[in-house]
Write a structure and sequence with these properties.
This protein is 38% helix and 24% strand. The protein starts with a strand and ends with a strand. It binds adenosine-5'-diphosphate and guanosine-5'-monophosphate (5GP).
Length: 201
């Protein structure tokens, strides 16, 4: 038997601070088939973030230009900044059979869910709103006002969870990583992404 695989678009979404970035780093470390889609953003880089690796950091003017050039799969206003998934990060890699991971907010994910026929959509929930607040505070990358905005937005975002194919709670990190790996492994064998050629005899 010979096998063929198609690239999978993996949409990982959920409230800010729920642990998406942490989970994706762990998944990518252990699965070489996963590639990260580096988004464009108008947000300022945080200490330790690298242009072209974490994000493509762009000016508002450049962001508008990219919209006009139809360079985005989706783009959204998130917590006061602009973020967008670049077509150049997605389609060629899917065509090469790579599994492309999007770390995007809920509005963007709902757009991708509506526009892309084939995708695997996962909503990551925090164990509680209290834990979410603690994670955002503990990360120490946002001002207290920005944390309040993110927590306020989380309330609406959580109401959208059933629009995704999968829900996972990121309580214990290792357990959540295992759940995500299970979803990905199952999808790798779904007939959407996997074809086994049966020889004539
Ligand atoms: P997001 O990408 O969803 O905004 P991050 O991955 O930056 O979230 O995680 C937010 C904070 O929560 C980070 O400080 C991270 O180390 C921490 N964190 C992530 N997952 C867990 C977990 N399962 N338990 C405790 N803390 C976590
Ligand atoms: P942060 O500023 O913490 O890196 O990201 C804030 C939020 O923006 C997160 O929920 C993240 O998933 C989301 N985000 C990152 N890139 C994109 C993108 O390209 N499109 C959309 N819609 N959201 C994004």
């Amino acid at each position: 038997m010979s096998e063929q695989r198609k690239g999978m678009l993996l949409v990982i979404s959920g409230p800010s601070g729920t642990g998406k970035g942490t989970l994706i780093k762990r998944l990518m470390k252990e699965d070489a088939s996963l590639v990260f889609s580096v988004s464009a953003t108008t947000r300022a880089p945080r200490p330790g973030e690298t242009d072209g690796v974490d994000y493509h950091f762009v000016t508002m003017e450049r962001f508008e230009e990219l919209i006009a050039q139809e360079a985005f799969v989706e783009h959204a206003h998130v917590h006061g900044n602009r973020y967008g998934t670049l077509r150049s990060e997605v389609y060629e890699r899917l065509a090469r059979g790579e599994n492309v991971v999007l770390d995007i907010d809920v509005q963007g994910a709902l757009n991708v869910i509506a526009s892309e026929k084939e995708k695997v959509s996962i909503f990551v929930l925090p164990p509680s709103l209290k834990a979410l607040r603690e994670r955002l505070t503990g990360r120490g990358t946002e001002t207290p006002e920005a944390i309040e905005t993110r927590l306020h937005n989380a309330i609406w975002e959580l109401t959208q969870k059933d629009k995704y194919q999968y829900n996972v709670i990121n309580d214990d990190l290792d357990t959540c990583v295992k759940a995500l790996q299970g979803i990905i492994e199952a999808q790798k064998h779904s007939t959407t992404y996997y074809t086994v050629e049966v020889p004539e005899e």
